[in-house]
Amino acid sequence: MPQHSTKSLRGALGGSDLADRRLLGARQGVALGDIVQGSCLNIDRAALAGRSVLVVTGDQLTAALALIALDGLVSRLVVAPPDLRSDLLPTVIADAEVDAIVSDFDPVTFAALGVPLFARCGLPIVRPDDDADGGRATEWVLLTSGTTGVPKMVVHSLEALTGAITPEPSRARPIVWATFYDIRRYGGLQILLRAMLAPSSLVLSEAGEPVVDHLHRLADAGVTHISGTPSHWRRALMCGTARAISPEYVRLSGEIADQAILNALRETYPQAAIGHAYASTEAGVGFAVDDGLEGFPASLLDQHGKDPEIRVEDGSVRIRSTRAASRYLGAAPDRLADADGFIDTGDMVERRGDRYYFVGRRGGIINVGGLKVHPEEVEAVINRHHGVRMSLVRARKSPIMGSIVVADVVLDGRPADAATGPAGDALKDEIIRFCRGALPQHKVPAAIRFVPSLDVTTAGKLARHHA
Question: For 9-349, which CATH class?
Fold first, then answer.
């Protein structure tokens, strides 16, 4: 069951240490005490009470201020992710019955949308708050990632969102959380909530900020706990300043955490506890694995009646939990859970001995002559090669096989000439032989291409382009 019982996020920010705890963006920050005592809105909070509000901002710090100010006040809080296309706004507004927008953009941006109320949000916090009622049970609406059309809108409660967060024991050194995620998506929002309830400070990421600059900011803030996807971490470890930080706890989620990245983090941060968590926007936080190994123990499936409860059916992870979303929004919403209350995540696993291993997404399979290949499974093998930092496996059309497997590979600290000429060809052959020793022939890449970097989505995941 959830460990925190609070009517609102704003109401949870009590205690005598609020002046010492801060939300830190790339250019400015704010003490939590100021957030509680003042207002970040340019109108009275009472004007927004009971409304369905869309929060759409260009800045994560502004988004955090808005979420804290509005939870418990409005009836519905719709959190727009940073990559939400403007042409999708009318659909989101209609399906969520939005009647107010809170933003740091110019109001003219939304003038044609027909929303009756606009409020500006941001720093500085300059005036005392009003006495608007803050005791409502606010619906939190998050948008899913990874879709090419209209994203699904998923309804959560604050209680469900905080269900996996346990109180931190008292300690001498203050906790400072950081995340590579954007807090306007589920993974980043989890870290915002965790930091607010820990209690701790939080250092926010900044879109487009060079990794070097971000790591220096984290070091300057004295970060102790930090979260990101495996792709976030691979990019960070390629940077010479990765050791500028000295975290106590490193957390991975959002993608498959293979053994190569877990080992690399252990080598870089030997003093840190390293764990990977499994979660989805719909199912919530399922579990965390802290034994340093990829995959998860099969014993997690033996906990019938526990919360959360996990099943594997037809190779797919299914979760029933009080941490899950309650429903989808939309004109013709999809069914969220099955008749037994389990949500099918679409994440595929295989059991090997007493452990399950993630192999990929149900919809991401490459068909090679009628045989199935999960790109992530091949990437996990390639990434184990000592010369590789990260890889992306994709399909290439073949007139004979339908598709063949090829891979884009980022090398790990090799000189430029190692990727070209005879030396580069030899290294490609070596990686292919390495794959042959661990994979069936149809899963072995037919070709390797060395690239300087790989694209990552705003959700922190490898950008997969289908051929």
Answer: alpha beta
